[in-house]
Amino acid sequence: MTPNAPRVEPVAPPYPAELQAVFDRIMPHVAFFAQRVALTAEQVRATWRVNGDDPVWSVEERLLIRLVDELHDTSGISDGLWRELTAAFSVEQIFELIALVGFYHTVSFFANGFRLAPEPFAAAPPSA
User: Fold this and answer.
1) Greatest CA span in the chain, whole angstroms?
2) In 3D, which of 127, 123, 120 has the Cα closest to residue 30?
3) What 3-state DSSP class applies to 114?
4) Taking residues 110-127, what's their average pLDDT?
5) Domain spans in the chain, listed from the N-terminal domain onward
6) C-alpha–C-alpha distance, residues 3 and 34, integer Å
7) CA-based angle 3:122:16, to the nearest 5?
8) How far is 19 from 23, CA to CA, in rounded Å?
9) % of the chain beyond a pLDDT of 90
10) How many Cα atoms occupy the beta-carbon half-sphere of 88 within 13 Å?
């Protein structure tokens, strides 16, 4: 096996070609979602940076980035971050956020574990 080569072949879509055409139109990954939530070009570039304290993010957005980082790094939420989260979000919203982080963590386990190639519509990292 070639190093970093995909470990499994892509699965053939289980849906009709007409539906695939719809998915292909709406799934240029970052571009589709960036437009829906009105991310600026600078914010899209900031998604690739290591530091979540980038001033392009609002206070609440930086708080969410900290939540993701902390859950990823420790599988937990520190007391200080919890206090900040509960001041900005309801417990129900925090519950959904934790579940969403877990979902994407699972997706990354599959993608990285199988060394899946990026989707054809995936955005490339910004050049410096």
Assistant:
1) 51
2) 123
3) coil
4) 80
5) 17-113
6) 33
7) 105
8) 6
9) 43
10) 16
